[in-house]
Write the structure tokens for this entry.
Amino acid sequence: MFIEQPSIYLRWLYPKATWRMDPSEKAVYLTFDDGPIPEATPFILDVLDRYGIKATFFMVGDNARKYPHLLEEVRKRGHRIGNHTFNHIGGLKWWSWRYLLNAHKAQAILKTDLFRPPHGWMKPSQYLRLHNRYRIIMWDLVTRDYSKWMTAEGVVNNVKRYARNGSIITFHDSLKSIDKLKSALPDAIDWLIGEGYAFRIFP
């Protein structure tokens, strides 16, 4: 199970993936996984607009298919899109050819150069094939906003404890997280601003 900040050993499994950006720059990269969905994504977009922040949304292709207006709204507001497979499937449980086909199916809708594997795991063959086509973005800090054991305050405390220069911070635009994010997302952003962090999206 992933902890808030992946160990160096885990990062070694996928050495050409991006786990953290420039550690010399006081900036963070906000990312949101598993959407888009109408119950969460519009709220997140409005919060980001209020602060003038751009982020990256790693979308499940089937959600983008069901809610194409949200996919276009994310793009229209200047955010980046990433591929998170079509059905949010874990690479270790699937034959590589099926996993790659699922990512390709999502790509037909999302049309992006970024990929993030659900749950952070891929087989070596999947990783090598996907790395040839996408920039694979992992994370430096996962807030665990999806956990039923985590409170909104706990989500903010994870940001306070683990954020550092170049952190790629993962939230979720999902039903599991949105009740917490209604207070945790603006509170976390306020804290990051107070600490002097800038907000970036991937070049």
In short: The domain at 16-199 is CATH 3.20.20.370 (TIM Barrel). Strands lie at 27-33, 56-59, 80-83, 114-115, 135-136, 141-142, 168-172, 198-199. The chain has eight helices and eight strands.
